[in-house]
Amino acid sequence: MQPRDLSTHSVYRAGRGIEEVAREIGLDPDELVKLSSNENPLGPSPAAAEAIQQHATHSHTYPKAAHTDLTDAIARQWDVSPSQVWLANGGDGALDYLARAFLEPGDGVLVPDPGFAYYSMSARYHHGTVGTYQLNKADGFEQTATTVLESYNGERVVYITSPHNPTGRELPREELLTLADRTDDSTLILVDEAYAEFASTDSAIDLLGERDDIAVLRTFSKAYGLAGVRLGYLLAPPTWADAYERVTTPFAASELACRAGLAALEDDAHLDNTVELVRWAREYMHEQLQAHTWPSGGNFVLAAVDDAETVARDCRERGVIVRDCTSFGLSDCIRISCGTREETKRAVDVINDIV
Ligand SMILES: *Cc1c(COP(=O)(O)O)cnc(C)c1O
């Protein structure tokens, strides 16, 4: 007996955990600076951590009230109706719900290259086929309607990442509108705003009231520092009615995740501190790194090096973990997440020494 043919599927390779790397190079995990997964260097909101502790003793019940309360709180935050909020186990879980709700077997999707690996994985799990549009290094990885439309062929879903991972580039709003207008009525533009809190361009969320061909993805993993609890959501157009209820796993987000999310949404100070730190760190890296960097709207900076694998290894041996972008198809780039001031300075020193 065998599972179905999975030969076209790829394996998601997460960056290695800090304990694993520390053991390998014989350092204490506390001595390592981990800037490879775009995590929040300030940790979770203290209010969220407390909410998790407080509600630990309720873990035996299904998350009914918490799920509803968080959905309502998110709906209020964005001025949408609760039925438009698709809570999920991380943004990745929301991508799966979208594919479940949207794709018929054989439907095509269009994803960026370089880009976030899970778009195509999720589409393939749901029997979709995958095409790519290129973001070109020669054009500074610029994102425009044209860069996408050049490769567009009537696909059912077009994935846009803005700010884009790993390049940091954003798709300007007028380009998004042009793209949505020029694609077929049956094509959805999914705008992945995993890093939007750090960006200067406006969110696409306010477009949801006006049109039914744009949906927006958000996560608590980055700006809210809750990557470990797995909480994200999709915001759908109002016309999709009860599609979520028809595709969701029962209780898509856990009790503890919902409680953490509710507390995090109230903690403006933690969010503000995070965004301020990220802006400082981005600036610092742009100014101080002795390598070409690209403008970034995210909590990371992409930097050009000769050989990413070697540079990342040399950094690791000196206790600084950065992301080798070879798996994104950029074997001459590293991605450095914004750390605390101290971590960011140390990373820049180490990288400058190496390159
Ligand atoms: C981190 C990230 C997500 C969401 O991650 P989750 O932890 O599953 O919420 C989505 N898209 C991009 C581009 C990301 O970098």
CATH superfamily of the largest domain: Type I PLP-dependent aspartate aminotransferase-like (Major domain)
Largest sheet: 7 strands, mixed
- Find the structural class using helix and strand composition: alpha/beta
- Regions with little confidence, pLDDT below 50 for 5+ residues: none
Instruction: Indicate the mean pLDDT.
Output: 96
Bound molecules: pyridoxal-5'-phosphate
The rough form would be described as globular
- CATH topology title of the largest domain: Aspartate Aminotransferase, domain 2
Please report the number of helical segments. 12
Q: Tell me what portion of residues adopts beta-strand conformation.
A: 15-25%
Sequence of strands across the biggest β-sheet: 2-8-7-6-5-3-4
The second-level CATH architecture of the largest domain is: 3-Layer(aba) Sandwich
Distance between the first and last residues' Cα? 51 Å
